[in-house]
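Input record (one chain):
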Amino acid sequence: MDPFAIMDCALIAIAIGEKAHNLRELLDRLLRIEDPAVTYFHFWGGLLRPQFVDPEYQNDFAAWAYHDLHDRRLAERLSILNPTEFKSIDDLHRRIIDVVEERMDEDDFDPHTEAEKPFFFMRSQIVIFDTRERAQTPEQLGDIIPSLALGSLFYHLIDARRRTESGRDDFSEWLWGWGAPYAPCAAKIAAIDPYFNSILELRSELERVLKQYLSKGNAS
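The corresponding structure, as predicted from the sequence alone:
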């Protein structure tokens, strides 16, 4: 097996010059904006942003619906959307549109409601860095995880899902390459849902799984 190359990344937010002051405008922008990097940013970008993210309304659409539009019903419907359950970002984008349209069709929807603050559409651009750190064995990878930079964790555990052919993270992909002894560990890591956790919680969970399975006797 080739060594596991530890990469790091930064998620850069880029304004695209679009905003919405109410739900009708939000729907209009969603129908026009087809760049998957926009949906990606508003669902995943919060994990790397140095700011508070509402744990109940984790994606930007749900948070805006609750805090600025004051539409709790819509916010709850948007908040349960988990990007890992969709085959592609485009599928997720279409589901957001469906949720918004369904809300606007309901009898209690007020089309005149204006948000306290507009929703600003942003797109993501990932800048990748090679840390030049390498894990030669699964055990070495386990030793590296506790000090792994958050950008590295995001790149290998989350962003990898849109890069790998299998749609899995880099850690489990690499461990599966080591054969049957490491398959249970790989499967456990692949089963981690990265969306409804903070990035620090994800690192702790990854560390726990590797410690459990790579301890003496579990991978032999």
